[in-house]
Structure formats: structure tokens, C-alpha cells
Amino acid sequence: MTDTEKELLEKGWALFTRIFMKYDILEKTPIDLGTGDKLSAVHIHTIEAIGKQYGNTVTTLSSYFMVTKGAVSQVITRLYQKGYVRKTRRKGNDKEIILELTAKGRRVFDLHEQYNAATVAEMQHLSDKYSPAELHSFLSILSDIDEMLMKFVANEKDQS
Known about the structure:
By secondary structure, this protein is mainly alpha-helical. It is globular. It has two domains: 30 residues; 97 residues, Arc Repressor Mutant, subunit A (Orthogonal Bundle). The longest helix is centred in the C-terminal third of the chain and has 28 residues. The strands form two sheets. The protein has a two-stranded antiparallel sheet with strand order 1-2. A two-stranded antiparallel ribbon has the order 3-4. β3 and β4 form a beta hairpin. Helix content is 69%, strand content 12%.
């Protein structure tokens, strides 16, 4: 690796870190999506995961978010208390609780989907500056960073 390549990687990593820190600030700022409740990103992403059927139990959501069942359970309890999530027992298995969005939860889900669509539209506007090959390279790099960070996460979990 040349000094120029190393310098580019260091600048890229610094930029990625700044982007992540800004995203982290946005994720930690509770917002009201028209229900009168200020919801954290964790709550909104949990509503999104249930709405998109990425998980409908504490166990499946725990796996999806890569966090403990206890952490998911706390979020679900809060969403249940505020009327965003309904809990029902699975027929034939009284221990398993199925999670569904209430009408209030569905409203937040729909508003969040509109927000996501607007974000994607903004990203499409930005992408007009780049060729398909550049966008493909960008996606490949992000995928590699994702894999690298996943190894770090797995390593941390092994050491805990």
C-alpha cells in the first residue's frame, strides 16, 4: 500500500466516523411523529421492524437487532404501555407472545415510511452526481465496512 492510499483510507475512515457521529446524534433525538409522544429511534426502529415483519417476537427482534432479549423486552414494554404494540399469545404455545402494531403503531410506521422515502429521494438526488460504477464501488465499500464492523461486534460479544 502506498502512502497516498494509506492517507486516503485514513481520511475516509475519519469521514465515516464523522458521518456516524452525526447519525448517532439524530438517532438519540426523540421525535413526535404525530401521536403526542416523543419516541426515540430505538422505539421507531422497533415499530418499523414489526411493521415490516422483520420480527414479531422478542426473540426474533433480539436476533434482528443483535441485542439481548432483555433489551428488546424493555422497548416492547414501553411501546405496549404507550399503545403502539399489541401482545397476543401464539395458539398452541402459551409461552410465545406475538407482537403486532396497533392503529397508533401503524400510524407511526406509515409516517416513518414516508420519512424513509423522502430520505431515499434525497439520496437519489445526490447519486445523480455519480456513475453507476462509482455507486457500485461505494456499495461494495460499505458492504466491506459492514462485514468488518460485524467482526468487531462479534468479537466484543465473545469477550463479554
